[in-house]
Design brief:
By secondary structure, the chain is of the alpha+beta class. It contains one helix and three strands. It has a three-stranded antiparallel β-sheet, covered by helices on one side. InterPro entries: Beta-lactam/transpept-like, Peptidase_S13.
Length: 57
Amino acid sequence: MRAKTGSLTAINSLVGVLTDRSGRVLTFAFISNEAGPNGRNAMDALATKLWFCGCTT
C-alpha cells in the first residue's frame, strides 16, 4: 500500500493505491470533515479493510 495523508483545519484526507489479497490494484480517496482524530482512525481502518478485502466485483 502507498498512501498520502493531507490536512487542513478540521479536514483530513487519505489517498492511495494498493494491491488487495486477490492481486487487484485498487485506488482510494477518503476525506473527513470535522471528524477529529476519529476521522483519521476511520480512514486508516477503511484502507486496511480494502487491503484485506479479496472481494469480487
